[in-house]
């Protein structure tokens, strides 16, 4: 039994045709992911040097047989997911776009694009600001007592956690736009609770940043507050 789906552009497709299109887009997205992952693995030595750059003066050890091999595979897969995410989201947009009204498309597509841009800005901010500040504190703290020699796997897990948590924290304006567009929470109410937001931002900044130094936490808290108030301004402009 065929179910006919009719879109706004009057194009009719059966559910079988939808499944075929979905399969093609999944295969294309997976192919892009595999291609990027393979390229990253081919240049894994350069990428490893790039990841070690914030930790200047640290000697890394391989504490288990094959540790470096498994870590490089993890790095390549993680980068494959991150770098292929715009292509994957593009395939999602192309698949759902025919079923959306013009009003829905005008909200959803800019929101998804903005989410990607903010995520990569969060990664850049974490790599250039948070990670160097956190590592600087961790390296200097107790350096006159113990020599800092780290496991490369544990170091990469630390970097990956900080990168992803910061990228997710930069989605705050997107969450505010969604709440505002669906009239769940207005920009006026968001502004009224600014005192609580400062307190919550401080807690989030302390949780996201693994180091205990105040500089890193202040940077993260300031970034969250800036994103929150930017989301309010953007929502007010959108309402007007």
Automatic annotation (TrEMBL):
Q: What is this protein called?
A: Sec-independent protein translocase component TatC
As for family, the record states: Belongs to the TatC family.
Q: Which NCBIfam families match?
A: tatC
GO molecular function per UniProt:
proton motive force dependent protein transmembrane transporter activity
Q: Choose any GO biological process term that the UniProt entry carries and state it.
A: protein transport by the Tat complex
Q: Would you say which domain of life the source belongs to?
A: Eukaryota
Look up and give the membrane topology term.
Multi-pass membrane protein
Where in or outside the cell is it found? Membrane
Q: Which Pfam families match?
A: TatC
Q: What is the lineage of its organism?
A: Eukaryota, Rhodophyta, Florideophyceae, Rhodymeniophycidae, Ceramiales
- Which HAMAP family does this chain map to? TatC
């Amino acid at each position: 039994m065929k179910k006919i789906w009719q879109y706004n552009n009057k194009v009719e497709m059966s559910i079988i045709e939808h499944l075929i299109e979905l399969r093609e887009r999944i295969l294309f997205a997976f192919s892009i992911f595999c291609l990027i992952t393979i390229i990253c693995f081919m240049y894994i030595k350069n990428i490893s040097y790039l990841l070690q750059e914030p930790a200047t003066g640290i000697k890394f050890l391989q504490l288990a047989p094959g540790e470096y091999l498994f870590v490089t595979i993890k790095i390549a897969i993680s980068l494959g997911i991150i770098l292929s995410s715009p292509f994957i989201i593009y395939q999602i947009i192309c698949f759902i776009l025919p079923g959306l009204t013009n009003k829905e498309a005008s909200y959803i597509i800019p929101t998804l694009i903005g989410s990607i841009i903010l995520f990569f800005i969060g990664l850049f901010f974490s790599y250039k600001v948070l990670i160097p500040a956190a590592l600087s504190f961790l390296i200097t703290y107790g350096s006159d007592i113990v020599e800092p020699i780290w496991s490369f796997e544990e170091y990469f897990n630390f970097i990956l956690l900080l990168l992803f948590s910061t990228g997710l924290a930069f989605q705050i304006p997107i969450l505010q736009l969604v709440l505002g567009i669906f009239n769940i929470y207005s920009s006026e109410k968001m502004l009224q609770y600014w005192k609580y937001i400062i307190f919550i931002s401080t807690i989030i900044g302390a949780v996201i940043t693994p180091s205990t130094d105040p500089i890193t936490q202040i940077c993260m808290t300031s970034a969250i507050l800036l994103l929150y108030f930017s989301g309010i301004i953007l929502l007010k402009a959108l309402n007007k």
